[in-house]
Amino acid sequence: MKLIMMNAPMHTIDQKIAVEYLKFFYPPLRNEISKLSVQDNFAGIIQATINYLKSLLLEAKINIISHHMKLMHLIYRNGNSYVRDIIENLFVRSLESFKKHAKIQHWKLLYQYMPESFQVIYEDQRKQDKIFFGK
Question: What is the C-alpha separation between 49 and 33, in angstroms, rounded?
């Protein structure tokens, strides 16, 4: 029974469904996510997850961060255009900050574990930043 459900096609994830996934994926953030959800602040919810993952980075919990990246990718892959835009523009963009704050070997591991589509988006963002900002 479980295998059948896991192989069933997922429906498009809108921000309300994404919020429910995020409450489940991030138990320590459940209250904060609920408060931001009432305010219809999906971008704030994604930022809260980023802040949480940055705190894990300071503790060098690379495996946990990579697991959460894969969970975020699940939402991204099945998300509607709004959910995808917010994840691209906040979550994936924040990875540059992760790179700056991580030890080199930790960043290499994180990048290696990063879902391929996030790697592509990340590299595209870096190229655009170089063009626009000379970074």
Answer: 9
For the chain, the three-class secondary structure string (H helix, E strand, C coil) is CHHHHHHCCCCCECHHHHHHHHHHHCHHHHHHHHHHHHCCCHHHHHHHHHHHHHHHHHCCCHHHHHHHHHHHHHHHHHECHHHHHHHHHHHHHHHHHHHHHCCHHHHHHHHHHCCHHHHHHHHHHHHHHHHHHCC
Question: Tens digits of per-residue pLDDT, 19-53?
Answer: 999 999 999 999 999 999 999 999 999 999 999 99
Could you identify the residue written with the tokens 């991204």? 76
State the Cα–Cα distance between residues 81 and 105, nearest whole angstrom. 34
The pTM score is 0.87
| Separation in Å, CA 106 to CA 29, 85, 99, 111, 116 | 24, 27, 9, 9, 18
Evaluate whether 110 touches 66 at the Cβ level (below 8 Å): yes
- Considering the chain, what is the average pLDDT of its residues? 90
